[in-house]
Design goal:
Radius of gyration of chain B: 29 Å
Strand content of chain A: under 5%
Distance between the termini of chain B: 93 Å
Largest interface: A-B, 80 and 77 residues
CATH superfamily of one domain in chain A: MetI-like
Number of strands of chain B: 11
Number of helices of chain B: 14
Largest sheet of chain B: 6 strands, mixed
Shape of chain B: globular
Shape of chain A: globular
CATH class of one domain in chain A: Mainly Alpha
Structural class of chain A: mainly alpha
Strand order of the largest sheet of chain A: 1-2
Oligomer: heterodimer
Chain lengths: 343, 347
Amino acid sequence: MLEGPDGAQAVEAERRVTFGPRRSRSKLTSSFRTPLWHRLAEKTIAVLALTAIAAIALIFVFIAREAIPMFWESDFAQEVELPDLFFAKQWHGYDEPVYVWQPVGEPPKYNVIPLFVGSLKVTLLAMLLSVPLGIGCALFTAMYAPRRFREIVKPIIELLAGIPSVVLGFFALMVIASWAQATFGFHFRLNAVVAAIGLALTIVPVIFTISEDALQAVPRTLTEAALALGARKYQVALRVVLPAAIPGIAAGIVLGFGRAIGETMIVLMASGNAAIMELFDFTTSVRTITATIAAELGEVAQGDPHWRVLFLLGVMLFVVTFVLNLLGDLIIQRLHQRLTASS
Amino acid sequence: MTIVKDYSHLFFFQARGCDAGSSRVCHTTVTSRPQSRFDWSKALKKASQKHWGLIVAIALVATSCTSRRSEPGDESSTGAAPSKTSSTLTIKGSDTMVILAQNWAQAFMKANPGRVVQVSGGGSGTGVAALINGTADLANASRPMKDKEKKQLRERRGAEAKEFRVALDALAVYVSAENPIDSLTIPQLKKIFRGQTTNWKDVGGADRAIILYSRENNSGTYAYFKEHVLNNEDFAATAQTLPGTAAVINAVSKDKAGIGYGGIGYSEGVRTVKVATADGKPVEPNMANATSGKYPLSRFLNVYSVGEPSGVAKDYLDFILSSDGQKVVEGVGYYPLPTEATAASSD
């Protein structure tokens, strides 16, 4: 009880030294002046850190700048009505109001909803596959596997993250698709499930590595105390170590999600790319936002309505990823506060 | 209570480890210690609040730079179009024609050492867009250029598009080698690709659901099929769009219930179906029927240039329209131009 607050204070002091040089200088180093090159190094690091933020801001500004003229351009208004981008409409030749993405045709139909549904379906399914697998793998390697085994397995799984996505896409297209159709009897050979399996191959290493690090970092004293109290190994793993590592694991899941929703090549090759508006059937082909942008952006003339809609898709993808990442961060923060609140 | 105490204690040591400069400890700290993770983001946040003006300023400056560059960029790219470097020719466009164009380029480069022809695919729409945007000298297109595209080309490049018919193709309808279907009429094809006929037994085949394979919408073959078979109505939403004719062939060859379409030059591992007009006899897609115009889906493959071609582009076009060039067409699996068509386009 006495050591706890002391430890926290020490951490706070360390934090100031490492991350908040301006404030801490007067308090901690008042007796001597920081050498010039130290201050220069600090400034340089600060600038580098800000560059990342500036880059993100720039990318967003650039994408938005290409999309936004759609609200006033007459070319755009002639070809597309804004509500049609989001709401179902009964087009000529259809029996009922539909959500369709048919950007080439008379008239072109740019409804982004099927693409959104496609992206979310594939991502969700990939997460459902890879989260339990990644965390399970991490738990095993961190808690059960012998040291030698861990030292071999961990780099190998991390190597999986280094495989180019086009190779994984090809693998999904040629091997997984045939296997899945033969096994599950899918109507569509290329579908959301196949793409999700391919995606899971890229996300599992992300979730695994980060979760494993988090589990490893849980203090041995916790495990030892639990064991000393008579807990079984699985109890220690599931009730002590796993909860203590939850913030790190959640960070891994958030990163994995970002990777999944932004992945292009695998879904372009293995999802079938049919923009079907179907919420619950995961065995149909899907067309994702990223694949649409990749497949169609090369074709359109700059400034064309089609071009603007594709950039709008980019903006929306950006916003969705940003919001979800933010939510993820908030949740992690909450979890972490709850874990350390009682000290 | 003890547990919690020890937990915070650990943070202390971890942070120290990081400070000591051991990179390995530092790594684990950053990725696994939520504590330090938040410090980073907080520090970033604090810094970004303080330097917010700076970030906005950088962003603004950079944007204005890009926008300033992009306005005259259209003209400068026109000027810098590879015609300046007189020995390199860049050709983009139709995936249907990409193998054909590569063979042409090889033969042309063999006959004219020192001249370089670069060919890439992507789709007819991609090629025409590249022509408009000034990133290609010639565009391969398996469909005629649209009026809208011609207008854009005139506005951007200041010259009319010039069309050259370079080969003849029969757009074939493919089914799996195991599919017993022998022929389909155009209205049947329309219903199939509109998604109104969904079972093979409705058109005389086995009792099996039909799986549609189509092309990406930047494809000239897609546009041609949509215009001539679907009467410009939409493909069924369930049609899977694949990048390139080769991908369609590959998919159909693996799918007993599949149906796809594409240039005749690719038909390996699949079966081509005879096609009939609404009231006509089924016609096989072959050279005689395509040349005589009996096959309902025969079409010309085109090359477009901006204005009258000159330099390497002219030599290249002369070559592909010559008898040597037309021999290459046959080698790839398409059909050489009927003699009168050559005369019509090369005037």
